[in-house]
Amino acid sequence: MATTPNGFDLDNSGKRIVVDPVTRIEGHMRCEVNVDEDGFIRNAVSTGTMWRGLEVILKGRDPRDAWAFTERICGVCTGTHALTSVRAVEDALGITIPDNANSIRNIMQLNLQVHDHIVHFYHLHALDWVNPVNALRADPKATSELQQSVSPSHPMSSPGYFRDVQNRLKQFVESGQLGLFKNGYWDNPAYLLPPEADLMATTHYLEALDLQTELCKIHTIFGGKNPHPNWLVGGVPCPINVDGTGAVGAINMERLNLVSSIIDKCTAFVNNVYIPDVIAIGGFYKNWLYGGGLSSQACLAYGDIPEHPNDFSADQLHLPRGAIINGNLNEVHEVDVRDPEQVQEFVDHSWYNYGEPGKGLHPWDGVTEANFELGPNTKGSRTNIEAIDEAAKYSWIKAPRWKGHAMEVGPLARYIIGYASGHEDIKGQVEGLLRTMDLPVSALFSTLGRTAARALEAEYCTRLQKQFFDKMIANIRNGDSSTANVEKWEPKTWPKECKGVGMTEAPRGALGHWVQIKDGRIDNYQCVVPTTWNGSPRDSAGNIGAFEAALMNTKMERPEEPVEILRTLHSFDPCLACSTHVMSPEGQELTSVKVR
Amino acid sequence: MPDAQFDSVLVMGIGNVLWADEGFGPRCAEALAASYALPDSVRLLDGGTQGLYLLPFIEEAEALLIFDAVDYGLAPGTLKIVRDGDVPSFMGAKKMSLHQTGFQDVLATAAFKGCAPARMTLIGCQPQELDDYGGGLRDTVAAQIAPALAAGLAELASWGIEARPGRTDTGDLADPSIRRRAYESGRPSEDAACRSGDARFLPGRAG
């Protein structure tokens, strides 16, 4: 037994459980835990098993193109990486953007937040709480009553509607093609919803799919295309011509009206479906308050959604910036991502080499030199690791730290920082939710709190979207239709050497790109992504990362069915694979769960 | 050629251009746009790795033609065509989005919604190398673009769709900076950009 500096008692003597999903595109993740005799997790080890190394493929490229590469890093956060990238390059080159560009970027970033949060809840995370197979046993009439009680304003609530969905679900399950729901642990006692709540949530799974068709259109309108919208260093690549009638590419009134109607639809869904579902489902899991991890002691956010273009002062950002450490919510520290002493990455437990132990490097000075070696207590072979040795190097993820502290990032971190710093909107939402659910503030620090914070943030983001839409319209009416500043587009206007940083709050948390430009080309590019923070391994001092901390002391109903592990890891919306629903061509489950 | 059977056809290349042969699908879409004029009823799209976010495009389509790198367990560069009900089972191993939605799940979701395309064809190429981040297509796989396009055009023809030599203007492809030629020719040298990694995933590279 050992206690980490960040206060967790680790004991790796119990049964070792390995969850090693197999996926390729976004990078891989593996998780190992030790469980004691009573089924409680007493040690957790999170391993990123794939190195992406985006940094090195950008060397020598044109910095104005970096967004297009970073947009392909991952399958969903395309826009947020692109935005972070253009901000980094603009910062390096001293380029300012016009007011409309700020509003449009905010609308797109907020749209991504809302879109991602909804898709995350209904299409990734819901199956950790909701049992669609159990929904087959629901009474459609009772489901209708439940729907009307949890959300009286939602029009789709008749018994016939739910009966129809139930029939489709039944056909689907019977046809055997239900890859979607096939590999769940559907008889695990960790599932607590009555069949009617399961049917209601499964129905909303379908409604959310319909909504996302609408949400995508906003990116098409402002980004010119979807699923990979265009971005531009200096602004946004869409001219505005409100008097135009369907001119190719230009934003006219017809398109702006469409944006407005999509924001309205989205707002209605979040208010009438998403928030009520989280409250209703959460109500059945009120006693399952595991998974808080670092959230009660160390949270970090860079902040986003600037009120004015080119002004990233903390008090001008609608999504809060700040750092909380040592569990002291009375003090929210200012964060400076340029300060070499604040954000640093450590590699003592990561498969990289810095040349000396205990060394941390700021991303501008970041070095990416691989060094794959396994510790002496590794079980298995180099190509088939049965159990990793966490005392040695054990992950391809570096360990970023803020002033030496392991931090949680993401919606819950943003909401705790907002709550602690007295952010009016956030504080009001959090207090309202806790009152409705009759829960204390401490309940926030949990897996469920993470899931609830995401829903509240979606609601807040729809309001902000409307706000920036109105702001843009007012600005256009005042005669300003400028969307880009191309004064410094040509490399001959650039300094010989410069560096910059771009920050956003991605759906999953604080995202930073640090760029160095030399002779018109990228000399160094470092991304510290949200999952680097949350999925980080131990550091030289022995602090465990946010995923690891969140798994600690969770009770597992059946160790061979890692519902609880997946529930908590999914609550972070990880940018790494960690799915129970991974399939081989023959339809077998590829995610292996091994108990040793 | 039969009469056109569908008002709405989606031709989509999927995969991640940053992962060597994994970019086969999007590169096929680019090559198709550069050498053939498709009628207005056809939408040509670089789907990237967007998983569930591609559902709206699939729902709109009555017929779907997919180009992709697929691990069939065959010799590298082998093309294999599967159709309709066989398509999902060949796309299961491939995780596309970070929401871990395989394309199989996307097709299952479309079916669950009652919006699956009536016809589906997958033109897949067995990759040679997937785990080379920042790399381009290997020669054996690049050589299959032309045969894959020929197979795709034959498939379209069987649906009554004629593609003439020419160009298709579409905004739905990759940004020019990451189109194949710019992407592959602009890659930094191995000295500048270390390419080693985990032995389990980058076989033969890790020291």
UniProtKB/TrEMBL annotation, chain A:
TM ranges: none
Cofactor section: Ni(2+)
PROSITE patterns xrefs: NI_HGENASE_L_1, NI_HGENASE_L_2
UniProt keyword terms in alphabetical order: Metal-binding, Nickel, Oxidoreductase
Subcellular location: Cell envelope
Highest taxon, organism lineage: Bacteria
Quaternary state and interactors: Heterodimer of a large and a small subunit.
PANTHER family: HYDROGENASE-2 LARGE CHAIN, UPTAKE HYDROGENASE LARGE SUBUNIT
Family: Belongs to the [NiFe]/[NiFeSe] hydrogenase large subunit family.
Record function comment: This enzyme recycles the H(2) produced by nitrogenase to increase the production of ATP and to protect nitrogenase against inhibition or damage by O(2) under carbon- or phosphate-limited conditions.
Protein name, as recorded: Uptake hydrogenase large subunit
Organism (species): Rhodovulum iodosum
From TrEMBL, chain B:
Matching Gene3D superfamilies: HybD-like (3.40.50.1450)
Pfam families according to UniProt: HycI
Keyword Translocase: no
Signal peptide segment: none
Keyword Protease assigned: yes
Keywords in alphabetical order: Aspartyl protease, Hydrolase, Metal-binding, Nickel, Protease
Basic and acidic residues biased stretches: 182-193
GO molecular function: peptidase activity
Region annotation Disordered: where it falls in the sequence: 182-207
InterPro entries: Pept_A31_hyd_express, Pept_HybD-like_dom_sf, Peptidase_A31
Protein source organism: Rhodovulum iodosum
Domain of life from the UniProt record: Bacteria
GO terms, biological process: proteolysis
Protein name: Hydrogenase maturation protease
Similarity section: Belongs to the peptidase A31 family.
